[in-house]
Amino acid sequence: MGILTLTSFLGFTLFVAVVAWYATRKTDERTADGYYLGGRSLGAITIAGSLLLTNLSAEQIVGLNGQAFEEGLMVMAWETLAAIAMVFTAIYLLPKYMTTGITTIPEFIEKRFDKQTKALLSILFLFAYGVVLLPTILYSGSLAFSTMFDLPNVLGISSWTVIWICVWAIGIIGMIYAIFGGLKAVAVSDLINAIGLLIGGLLIPIFGLFLIGEGNFGKGLNTLWETNPEKFVMKGAVDSSIPFGTVFTGMMLAQIYYWGTNQSILQRVFGAKSIKEGQKGVLLAAFVKFVIPVIVVVPGIISWHVFDGQLENADQAYPALVAKVLPAGLTGFFAAVLFGAVLSSFNSLLNSSATLFGFDLYKFYFNPKASDMETVRAGKIFGSILGVIAMVIAPFIIFAPDGLFSYIQQSLGSLSVPILAVVMTGVLTKRVPALGAKVVMIGGVLLYLISLLFVEPYFREAAVAAAQAEGITEAARLSVIKAEAYPHYLHVMGMLFVFNILVMLLFGKLRPKKKITVVEHTDVIDITPWKYAFVVGGFITLLVISTYFVFS
């Protein structure tokens, strides 16, 4: 790492830290609203920037570009469909949530069901953060820095050791930022880093196309298009990671879960000064999300062309391209932006974890009479413990068989399906009892895990044996196994979601809730919805749909 690279890296990182400190110096973070929701003072632009950077971190950039390296443009469905889920959240769900003045999604569930249901939901969220999301953020960031700067050769140590060092370095810095900074510090730093990431992220495909075109951008784009036509097909093959049919089943459910029920995302919106600002922030982020594939998908296809499809690990596609095409003067800046993105997602999840534990578990199970200061302190301690657990787990993700992004989605499926079923049933019905929600949250997780860990391997082994008996070649055998052995995990998510909903409705029929909850409106913020939300949301939805017609 040269002097210029190191200087630009440290300079931008310090700049973000100073601005975040200056913006939050007057916020009283000894109170729950101050620490967890930034004093409910966030505007639309800050919310949008924080949402984008919480989502658009190294695990997203590295993981999706890795999938695009192997499979092409179809993986952009994860990004474009997110915009539709965000529109649904802004128009329909936010008014339901924010008129009650809640701090967490489990708090909303408590109002609809009971305290035990709230506690169980909080535990599921924390398990998802500690075992899946936090470790993948640390691992992907470490892999990116290791590959971009060729750290194993520079330091003269093994790749495995470098990953461990990077994981703990990022984790410790992120913990300090999140635990002691509160939500407003996270959100402000997110906004700055989001701007930097959009600029730096757009530069990578531009420089990549200049490289392919030998200095001519248009020639590079034309060459990439003509020499890799299979990478620009939007209809996913049956044996791909995203068969086209999954767009209408589990993929959309995963998006609604992430943007409509996920505490780490919605906490930014709950910190809005009004529902109008919250809706504007989500819709602005949805509009920007429409162009994000240029950052998280196109570089993977460029990397396929530049490296002739020959990389040791598909998840190295993006950092390897960055190392090859980015001028030395910009490498430090981009590394600082990527570092900020990793920290953003990591400390956002830690802050949400502290919120969930302090607000929903500590005051319920451990100290019902806890003051705001005691609740915040307990949340900080728990966040620190969860961060350490994530740092221990993170390096082992290198052994995930289907790549980083598939690991995230498959692992989260066990939690996202029952959580989404409970929240949506809570929003849409009045008579479903708490018992139905509890059965689904426990049973839904177990059913998905049984499917993923036992049923699918059984069918896969049977398909392997049948293919071997028929003498099918290795490549064809793998294709047959993927296509025919067992339904795709996204289809499984869709089927289990419907099953969970039916179970809860059955409980509502057999043992209906006797006392209907009356929602009390809050006077903490202005709860008047944005009058243009529906029009803007409709425009964004049409943009997304048009994309599929263009590329199909």
Short recap of the structure:
This protein has helices at 3-24, 32-37, 44-55, 58-71, 77-98, 105-112, 115-148, 151-155, 159-212, 217-227, 250-260, 263-270, 275-289, 293-296, 298-306, 317-325, 328-366, 372-393, 404-428, 434-469, 474-484, 489-510, 533-551. It is an all-alpha fold and 552 residues long.
What does it look like?
With 552 residues, the chain is mostly helical. It has a single domain, classed as Sodium/glucose cotransporter, CATH 1.20.1730. Helix content is 76%, strand content 0%. It has 23 helices and no strands. Helix 3 packs antiparallel against helix 12 and helix 9 crosses helix 10. The longest helix is centred in the middle third of the chain and has 54 residues. 55% of the residues are buried. The mean pLDDT is 81.
Q: Architecture, CATH level 2?
A: Up-down Bundle
State the fourth-level CATH superfamily: Sodium/glucose cotransporter
> Which percent range describes the beta-strand content?
under 5%
SS summary, helix count: 23
Structural class: mainly alpha
What is the top-level CATH class? Mainly Alpha
Estimated radius of gyration: 23 Å
State the domain count: 1
Strand/helix succession: HHHHHHHHHHHHHHHHHHHHHHH
As residue ranges, the low-confidence spans are: none
**What is the terminal-to-terminal distance?**
43 Å
Q: Tell me the CATH topology.
A: Sodium/glucose cotransporter
Can you give the mean pLDDT? 81
The helix fraction, in percent, is over 70%
Largest sheet: none
List how many beta strands DSSP finds. 0
* Global geometry: globular
